[in-house]
Amino acid sequence: MTSHDLRSQLASLTTEAFRPELADIDRLPTPDLARLMNGEDAAVPTAVARRLPEISAAIDAVAARMARGGRLIYAGAGTAGRLGVLDASECPPTFNTDPAQVVGLIAGGPTAMVTSVEGAEDSTELARQDLDALKLTPDDTVVGISASGRTPYATGAVAHARAQGALTIGLACNEHSALAAAAEHGIEVVVGPELITGSTRLKAGTAQKLVLNMLSTITMIRLGKTYGNLMVDVRASNDKLRARSRRIVSLATGAGDDEIERALAESGGEVKNAILALLAGVDGPTAARLLEESGGHLRAALAHAPR
What we know:
52% helix; alpha/beta; five-stranded parallel beta sheet; 14 helices; globular
């Protein structure tokens, strides 16, 4: 593609549109700029809300595959790639997932998290290589993320994953995008032109973050990683999380501190097991067995616990 062709393509994208009415914003007082930017951001949740049916359908498809042992894999470049890596990296401490269960791929690899890797986002071959290294299966899901909806790394990842039989989702911020068209589930959250022309780390980035939050969080709820709105699969890897673990057990059971400490000790620090032991009146090994038989779903384990 020539430079002229690329300029023409970018000029047709809503996310790249120039807004003449904002041409003098550099002259505004800081409080006015802050109000203006805050007003722009306020429109993002509404744009996401318009795509809730597509988002919900994608989540149910992801959850069905992850319940069979599949993985959730994000693929993007630049801001989009960083958001995918961020979401993936937060799943192990929040939901006690294996680090290989939710994976973030960014064009150019880890270096691209903090600095630009020239040409990486333009390579569909790089996307294929990154996915091939993961040995895709039909139970895996690949989510291509791109504000423009045309980034070769993201579209290439989705096209390659679909050819391998994996579930594919395309998350873009422009209508009629190549990325959404390439995926089984297209999600196009149109947030309009940015405050700073073409700076898609702003509204487009916020929209992508909101959708990724939904994809991972609601999928984990469907997989039994929560009990109500409590993070019962939280991994207590530091003092704050250990304190949070005890608070979660307390909120779920109403038990006293001594009971909570005993239940956690007997369950090896597993919050979900401790809650089941306290609510069902069983010992640690029995709680572990009931949870295993219930696929890790606490409510199901409680329903099958001896009365």
